[in-house]
Automatic annotation (TrEMBL):
HAMAP family per the UniProt record, alphabetical: tRNA_methyltr_TrmL
EC code(s) of this entry: 2.1.1.207
Protein name (Swiss-Prot/TrEMBL): Putative tRNA (cytidine(34)-2'-O)-methyltransferase
Functional description taken from the UniProt entry: Could methylate the ribose at the nucleotide 34 wobble position in tRNA.
Reaction it catalyzes: 5-carboxymethylaminomethyluridine(34) in tRNA(Leu) + S-adenosyl-L-methionine = 5-carboxymethylaminomethyl-2'-O-methyluridine(34) in tRNA(Leu) + S-adenosyl-L-homocysteine + H(+); cytidine(34) in tRNA + S-adenosyl-L-methionine = 2'-O-methylcytidine(34) in tRNA + S-adenosyl-L-homocysteine + H(+)
CDD domains: SpoU-like_TrmL (cd18094)
Length: 158
């Protein structure tokens, strides 16, 4: 089982997904992509952003949210949203957790956010910034989750 799962719910931009894939390889995390996607998984832009790391990535595409829940080997999902109840650094992460991020243009749908009471997290920013780039958000959250769970890559420090 992967030390961490990163879920992109209906991602739209191949470059972001490619960058997230690279971060997942760096962390030893599995990447899950929930359809519909805003690109083809064989998109040249996607692979270019992932560079030569993509071949090392453990990833899977699922048809919808219910399909994800059936296949994901954990029920510990942390949903990242600007409507989060607390900061991402306040969560109590464990090995095998799943970090869930919404699409670049609309985030996660309210129906999913409402179901995640106590598991809605936000990355705080100053009011002038609506949100951070998806790949930046995944990197911040992924490294914090691995730090807390004790699964950082060798030599990363703690």
């Amino acid at each position: 089982m992967s030390s961490l799962h990163v879920v992109l719910y209906q991602p739209e931009i191949p470059y972001n997904t490619g960058s997230v894939g690279r971060t997942c390889v760096a962390l030893g995390a599995k990447l899950w992509l929930v359809r519909p996607l805003g690109f083809q998984v064989d998109d040249r832009q996607l692979r270019r952003a992932g560079l030569d790391y993509w071949q090392h990535l453990e990833w899977e595409v699922v048809d919808d949210w219910e399909d994800l829940l059936q296949k994901l080997p954990t029920d510990r999902l942390w949903l990242f949203t600007k409507h989060g109840d607390r900061g991402f650094y306040e969560a109590d992460y464990a090995a095998g957790d799943a970090l869930v991020f919404g699409s670049e243009s609309s985030g996660l749908p309210p129906s999913l956010i409402q179901q995640a009471e106590g598991r809605r997290l936000r990355i705080p920013t100053l009011p002038e910034v609506r949100s951070l780039n998806l790949s930046v958000s995944v990197a911040l959250a992924g490294y914090e989750a691995c730090r807390q769970a004790g699964t950082l890559p060798p030599g990363a420090g703690a």
